[in-house]
Every structure is written in structure tokens, then in C-alpha cells.
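Usage example:
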Amino acid sequence: AQTVTQSQPEMSVQEAETVTLSCTYDTSESDYYLFWYKQPPSRQMILVIRQEAYKQQNATENRFSVNFQKAAKSFSLKISDSQLGDAAMYFCAYRRPTGGGADGLTFGKGTHLIIQP
Amino acid sequence: NAGVTQTPKFRVLKTGQSMTLLCAQDMNHEYMYWYRQDPGMGLRLIHYSVGEGTTAKGEVPDGYNVSRLKKQNFLLGLESAAPSQTSVYFCASSYSIGEQFFGPGTRLTVL
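Running the assembly step on the lines above writes:
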């Protein structure tokens, strides 16, 4: 079974600074999807960024980018120019490719990101 | 376009009572999922469906049943609620590949 590990229960960063959240995963698959979801206090799950394992290029979405290291099974999220609205729980998630969405997402336990004004 | 909606948003049950959570999506997604989220944990998959009339067990299925009679709806049932089922429940839907879209969650407390 796949596992996803987020080793940082909590991170704190000054507004406008850059922060990196770590995620490692374990899988025997060669093709899969990885995601970062944000969960603010409203508890709504919001997709931040996605990465297909077959793509070598790291995904970017505005101030959010990932460092995908397939051999190391590492998938970190970098947030540049941190804003107060970025404060939330961040979850790393893994999805198998075969059978479509059959097995759902496997989530890490999350990192609580605090933005200091 | 409402996306994924869940009913109700909050519920309090007594041990042994039953209830059904309703999830609806208007994105014509084939796949639908039920997750639970407990404090300090990520979401864990309860049951899922890959199409109308089909359901399958996820990681933590015990104590729950599901039905997918219509493509746009996915129901989660608790036949005899237990305090261990106190949690926040999320429904999600997706196409066959890519990201899942989540509902706003239902906070359930079992006394």
C-alpha cells in the first residue's frame, strides 16, 4: 500500500518570505499523480498544485511550485512571497493511475502553516 | 455550477441512531468518494464508486454503507452510530484521472 509522510507538523514563516513544505511517499508504481491540497479554517479542501509522475518538469502555479524528485520519492511544496491568506493546513496526496480513480487519494497527516505578519 | 455539495453540514447523533449523508455533484464525474478526517490525521477513504450502481470499500469501511443509485449522488449511511464515528466527513468527485473536487464537509458528533 502507498504511504505519504509529512514530517513537519507545523511550520512558521514571515509574511513575504519563502517556505518549503516536505512530503515523501512510498510506492512501487512507476506512474502516478501527486497533489498538494490546502485546508483553511473553513475546512474546504482546495487544490493547490498537481504533478504527474511521468513529467520531469516541476509544476508551478503562480507563487506555488514543487520540487519533484522521483527517484527519492520526494515532493516538496515551495510557497514564495508568503501571504496571510496562505495560512492553513497543507496536505500532500498520492493517487494511483491505474483503474482511474479507483483507490482514491492517500493523504499525509498535514503541515500546519503559520504566517507571521 | 455548485460543484460538490453535502447535506447536512452538522449533525449530532446518539449512540445507536442511524443517519444518511448526501453528496451531490453537478460536474458529470464518474468517480465519487467518501472520506473521514480525524484530528491530526489526513483524510482516509471510507468507500468509493466508479460509476452509477457500483461501490467499493476503501481503507476504513467498517460501520458504513454507501449507495450510488444516480450518477450525481453518493449516499453514506451509518446504521448504528458509535462515538468512534465522530469525525468530519468529506465527499469528493473526479474524472478517471487527475484531481478530486471536494465538498465542504459534514461535522458529525456521536454522543
